[in-house]
Amino acid sequence: MTNWKQIDTYVRQWLKEARLRIFDSFQKTLDIQTKSDRNDLVTNIDKETEEFFTKNIAANFPDHHIVGEEGFGDTIDKTEGILWIIDPIDGTVNFVHQQRNFAISIGIYENGKGRLGYIYDVVHDELYFVESGKGAYFNDTPIAKMADTKVSDAIIGINSSWLIANRHIPISNLHALVRDSRAARSIGAASLEFAYVATGRLDAYISMRLSPWDFAAGRLLVEELGGVVTTVKGELLQTLKSSTVFVSNKGLHEEILKQYLLK
Ligand code: 2AM
Ligand code: CA
Asked: What is the mean pLDDT of residues 94-114?
């Protein structure tokens, strides 16, 4: 029998330890490299943080599998067994430029089913936690179920680059959505944007390109609270596949899909 309590205790301990390591790095010069394009950054701290988690997981749970953004985990194409999906620093551009608005994101799945999710806002020491089927918490406080909102009252989370042109949704539809909503915001860390939708600080979040580690934890958090997570075409997300993502409360999800994204 898997001891989920023990896993949870370890994760919380490791998150605190990773926080201290990351804080230490603020005093030092970062080694920064670009990945897929000039806006896609990675630093030595992304790599060191992922290695810290993968080493600890392997030492304590040798039969678990790991998928990590920086490649210290396993090469996996199936969701059998217990699978940790890790983004050591989500929002690396923010980490580099702002030293805030980034998070450690960890989703833990068992045979493809979500079990535990952690989104840790490192600088603010704020943890969004979900145990699927058992509740979601902001630090120690339970998070209320998500309430339905309407586009006219909604704040839409969308990365500015998706307001230029993309190959998924006609740009005029996104312009119309932003025009008809109350406001648009871009935080720049997908996991935090999921957490903001979960807690009602944003009403929706749209991204044209996310990887499994960007949404593994956030998806569990939002679904636990009654929200809906799909692609921008309303399709189910696949745990190990990169895709577009559209997340919001249930009522708004229907309205935005029908009136803007599928139009
Ligand atoms: P990252 O910081 O872990 O790379 C930025 O809007 C958000 O999109 C971040 O959560 C970022 O995650 C994610 N993202 C996913 N793929 C990206 C890419 N190729 N370039 C920049 N950001 C990306
Ligand atoms: Ca990352």
From this structure: 98
